[in-house]
């Protein structure tokens, strides 16, 4: 099948990105009827609907979603290719990342980056959900995973590492001379599979059922606060809690650190890789991590 008309693809890309005929029409400088006509032409050519039209919203059909990602990426690449190479169209750098990385490492460094680039506004959003760059106003994201995200440029930042930590008051109440001794204490978020990774590395088999009921919290930051309050042992990343370890408000009973094969990655659509704002932020992150002893 030959490539559909560019006007129809352009309309489809805008509607798929905004999930709104109205916003797409405003962006393209067209009437809503003209955008709808182009979408209808494309649907007739493909022989299948691309959007589900509802009273107050639209959504992509399965076929629409299949075509949307490469179409959005292609137009993103075209916009990047034909933009002024000496100018940066991005006036706001919108960063999405998981709460733990934001709160424990990134947020205290973003001020330094923004002060070095005073003409660039920086906005940080935190979420455990994966960003859809085609639909959300996000410039870059920092994700936890294995780095396999088709269509995205990826840069490894740091490995995800874990080790148990607890408050000194809780540690004084128990004899913790061997890793197996931790099983007698309340383990925060015991269903976290990383507990099994750490205990297995230490040669300690976990019981088939959790040794006791316990707290399950949504982020490492919350688990750290619960550990600081003496409610249990948290599995945390030492790099993120250096201050607590240095001041003794948390202790690390064993030097052993486990890795789960995952890492934090800076990601963004391939079509954006030459944007000056992204290049600057990428260089800043890599410099900060390079100077961070880990």
Gist?
40% of the residues lie in helices and 18% in strands. It is an alpha/beta fold.
CATH architecture of the largest domain: 3-Layer(aba) Sandwich
Helix and strand content put the structural class at alpha/beta
Q: So, the CATH homologous superfamily of the largest domain?
A: Periplasmic binding protein-like II
Mean pLDDT: 88
Distance between the termini: 53 Å
Report the portion of residues in β strands.
15-25%
Query: How would you sum up the global shape?
Result: elongated
Q: Could you give the order of strands across the largest sheet?
A: 4-3-5-8-6-7
CATH class of the largest domain: Alpha Beta
Largest sheet: 6 strands, mixed
**Order of SSEs, N→C?**
HHHEEHEHEEEHHHEHEH
Radius of gyration: 24 Å
> What number of structural domains do the residues give?
3
Tally of DSSP β-strands: 8
Task: Pick out the low-confidence regions.
Answer: none
- Summarize the amount of helix as a percent range: 40-55%
The name CATH uses for the topology of the largest domain is D-Maltodextrin-Binding Protein, domain 2
> Total number of helical segments?
10
Q: In words, what does this structure look like?
A:
The chain is built from ten helices and eight strands. The chain has 294 residues and is of the alpha/beta class. The model has no long low-confidence stretch (mean pLDDT 88). Helix content is 40%, strand content 18%. The strands form two sheets. It has a six-stranded mixed sheet. Helix 1 crosses helix 3, helix 1 crosses helix 4 and helix 2 crosses helix 3.
């Amino acid at each position: 099948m030959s490539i559909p008309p560019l006007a129809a693809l352009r309309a489809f890309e805008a509607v798929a990105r905004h999930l709104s005929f109205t916003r797409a029409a405003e962006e393209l400088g067209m009437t809503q009827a003209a955008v709808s006509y182009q979408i209808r032409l494309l649907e007739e050519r493909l022989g299948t609907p691309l959007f589900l039209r509802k009273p107050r919203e639209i959504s992509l059909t399965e076929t629409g979603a299949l075509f949307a990602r490469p179409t959005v990426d292609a137009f993103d690449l075209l916009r990047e290719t034909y933009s002024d190479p000496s100018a940066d169209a991005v006036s706001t750098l919108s960063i999405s990342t998981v709460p733990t990385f934001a709160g424990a490492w990134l947020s205290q460094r973003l001020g330094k980056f923004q002060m070095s680039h005073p003409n660039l506004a920086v906005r940080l959003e935190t979420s455990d959900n994966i960003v859809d760059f085609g639909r959300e106003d996000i410039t870059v994201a920092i994700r936890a995973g294995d780095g396999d995200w088709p269509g995205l440029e990826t840069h490894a930042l740091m490995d995800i590492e874990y080790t148990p930590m607890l408050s000194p008051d809780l540690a004084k109440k128990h004899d913790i001379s061997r890793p197996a001794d931790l099983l007698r204490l309340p383990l925060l978020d015991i269903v976290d599979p990383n507990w099994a990774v750490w205990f297995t590395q230490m040669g300690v088999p976990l019981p088939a059922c959790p040794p006791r009921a316990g707290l399950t919290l949504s982020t490492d930051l919350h688990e750290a606060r619960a550990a600081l309050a003496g409610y249990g042992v948290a599995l945390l990343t030492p790099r993120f809690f250096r201050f607590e370890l240095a001041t003794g408000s948390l202790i690390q009973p064993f030097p052993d650190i486990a890795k789960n094969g995952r890492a934090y990655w800076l990601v963004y659509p391939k079509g954006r890789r030459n944007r000056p704002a992204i290049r600057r932020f990428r260089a800043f992150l890599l410099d900060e991590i390079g100077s961070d002893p880990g």
